[in-house]
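User: Predict structure, ligand shikimate-3-phosphate.
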Amino acid sequence: MILKVKNISNIGGEVKAPPSKSYSHRAVILASLAKGTSKLYDMLFSEDTLASIRVCKALGAQINKKDGYLEVIGTNGRLHNSCDGPIDLANSGTTLRLMTSVSALSDNEVILTGDESLKTRPMGLLMDALKPLGVETESLNGDDKAPILIKPGYLGGETNIMGNVSSQFISSILISAPLSKCGVNLYVLPEFKSKPYVYMTWDIMRKFGIRSVKAYYLKHDSCNQEHQSCRIDEFKIKKQEYIACDYTVEGDYSSASYLLALIAINGGSARVKNLFRTSKQGDKFILDILQRMGATIVRGDDYVEITSKGNLKAIDVDLSNAPDLLITVAVLAAMAEGTTNITGVAHARVKETDRIDTTCRELEKLGCCLEEHEDGMSITGGVSSGVVDSHGDHRLAMAFSLIGLKHDIKITNGEIFDVSFPDFIETMAKLGFELELV
Ligand SMILES: O=C(O)C1=C[C@@H](OP(=O)(O)O)[C@@H](O)[C@H](O)C1
Ligand SMILES: C=C(OP(=O)(O)O)C(=O)O
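Assistant: Predicted complex:
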């Protein structure tokens, strides 16, 4: 379907940010591993988080939608796969990565697969890191990608992994480690990208009763001690139980980036509720970015206010820790005065699409002047009307729709926002930006 602008009127107002996708995945997975019954409030029900609910049910958790919350009757770590064939995780990289280690806690084999995009996501480093922990996995197409067969038996012990491809591998081992036979010592070798997602993992593990986790920085012997990037991170997780709890999912800064960018580009002001000042989400970084580009940001305890005159200026920005902001920032750059340099996001090439490539190709279709780099891009402000394609990437569809504020733009395969932000059209409409799917 084509996503396009229907009407624009009085941009601004007040909206609630949708629930965090990352915390929703983690909440249902941890509640499924826990002893007892959890109540999960304000869960995100998007295509991706539904994949996590589906696999947790297949492995034995009882999950029921109640009035106002999701009830999860946990397994106390005793998983059994009731699914005969592969479990379909659709487009969700987080579910595939987190559940690869968790599936090894099942007393029978599990096969995880997904759509054509998910089958391109790298898995080799995680599979290799699980081996020393006694976990046997097999890529059924022999390409280190899904479908992945995971065999039962999770001993634990010591392992290491490179941190430069996906932090989801590290979150995966951390989440499963307390239920291994003897606990896990995990060494993360530099560079460690997307690190805030691991802080989020650790944050919610504590809410579900995990106490015995220690994290250290170690210096690599052969490295120059002065050099920050030579630091190795070590996590020590003892064997222990997850305990059920009542948990409310906070708002999502990545989804909110589209709401805030709308005001920044157009001009006007808005309040976005459900965004917490103390959040561990790395994508909070969007607030600094918008401020540096010329918007005014006021941070409340549980909301953000933005005011903009609509005249944005270019910046230099390193997105190593906030790769999901890439396409939002690229669109802001295309609508700003001057040349914005985006660096640090080579790992955005292995997401739903190669986001550096797809973003550059689609911006070029709109006449944008840019240079593509291995780990980012330089974008000089200035675009015109045109037709672009989402390539089946939810973030591309949502971010590019904002260009519709100033130019006639149509996005083919535009319905894909359901992956992370099912109420995208309704929420944008509340701010006066009416989109439609035709
Ligand atoms: O753990 C998570 O919830 C996520 C981690 C990030 O991936 P990488 O660690 O692969 O960058 C991010 O891009 C993804 O949308 C969600
Ligand atoms: C990369 C993303 O998600 P995932 O890795 O879960 O597919 C995303 O939401 O932008």
